[in-house]
């Protein structure tokens, strides 16, 4: 007698699990709105990081005064 073959299934990531729960709890429009909001948050963080870096560069050079 042979044992039945075992199929390996990938364990879903935490992100995949959250998206599955999200799809059960939210309508499509709400999901889209949430994702758009999160994209905006990430973009705001990127711009803030860029501003800090630009300020560091500017602070390295003394202001030119006439």
In short:
By secondary structure, the chain is mainly alpha-helical.
Description:
The protein is mainly α and 66 residues long. The protein contains two helices and no strands. It is elongated, with a radius of gyration of 24 Å. It starts with 13 loop residues before the first helix and ends in a 7-residue tail after the last helix.
Can you give the helix content as a percent range?
55-70%
Order of helices and strands: HH
- Biggest sheet statistics: none
What oligomeric state best describes the polypeptide chains here?
single chain
Share of β-strand residues: under 5%
**Count of DSSP E strands?**
0
Inertia-based shape: elongated
- In round numbers, the mean pLDDT is 84
- The stretches of 5 or more residues where confidence is low (pLDDT under 50) are none
Give me the Rg, rounded. 24 Å
Count of DSSP H/I helices: 2
- How far apart the termini lie comes to 95 Å
Overall structural class, as computed from helix and strand content, comes to mainly alpha
């Amino acid at each position: 007698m042979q044992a039945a073959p075992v199929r390996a299934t990938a364990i879903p990531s935490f992100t995949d699990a959250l998206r599955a729960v999200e799809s059960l709890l939210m309508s499509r429009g709400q999901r889209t709105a949430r994702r758009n909001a999160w994209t905006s948050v990430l973009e705001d963080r990127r711009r803030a990081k860029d501003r800090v870096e630009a300020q560091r560069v500017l602070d390295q050079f003394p202001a030119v005064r006439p």
